[in-house]
Specification:
Layout: E1 2-7, E2 10-19, E3 22-27, E4 30-38, E5 43-48, E6 53-61, E7 64-69, E8 72-79, E9 85-86, E10 97-100, E11 105-110, E12 117-118, E13 123-129, E14 132-137, E15 142-147, E16 154-155, E17 160-165
Antiparallel strand pairs: 1-2, 1-8, 2-3, 3-4, 4-5, 5-6, 6-7, 7-8, 9-10, 10-17, 11-13, 11-16, 12-15, 13-14, 15-17
Amino acid sequence: MKFVARHEGNEVAVEVERHGSGYQVTIGDRRMDIDLIEAGHFVHSLRFDDGRQFALVHERDGDRHRVTLGGRTLHVELFNPLALKRGGSDDAAGEGGTIRAMMPGRVVRLLVSPGEAVCRGAGLLILEAMKMENEIVAPADGILSEFFVKPGDTVEVGAELAHLES
């Protein structure tokens, strides 16, 4: 999955791919192989391919993340800039609307059911594009009123994926 991480006003590209039993993570132009094992509700064991191992504490509130690693805490906002566009407006997500595909792809799976309440940043569906699975997230708190797609459907840029009522 591709993301953009925003920290202290700076943005950097982040890509996370499943790689064997672990993950291959690219942050900016730096690539690393890691293993991540859940050790508790917020605590994970993070092991790098060079053998270094750390306890990582991760807390999430929508697209905002607080990560503590090696005694340092970072507040990072993660978002997928290619995966969603609200119908009718590109302003800050604060209300419901039609969620549209920002790239062509294939719907892999739906993560919630129509009628479910969702919080901003909650995953709604997985869209496979360019051999990558992208999680389409809710742009605001609301009720997912309906999906316009089902698993296996292919969509073009701008296709309506779902509707979120605020």
